[in-house]
Please model this.
Amino acid sequence: MPIKSQAQRRKFAELLVEGKISNEVYERWNRGAGYKKLPEHVKPKAKPKAERASEAKPKTQRSTRKTTKRSRR
Model:
């Protein structure tokens, strides 16, 4: 899976310098991106409407009260 943003590229380079990943791993991930100009950050994919609706605030029950007709004066 290639690197998708500049932030990811920097993070992988940092891990490489710290010795937490090997040079081969860094090259494999970076090779997929190539020399493309990458965005600074990648936005998360939008959730489908059905999922967004289920995460919304739970609806509260409305109190039902009888309304009286107002007389016109």
Q: What stands out?
A: The CA atoms of residues 5 and 39 lie 5 Å apart.
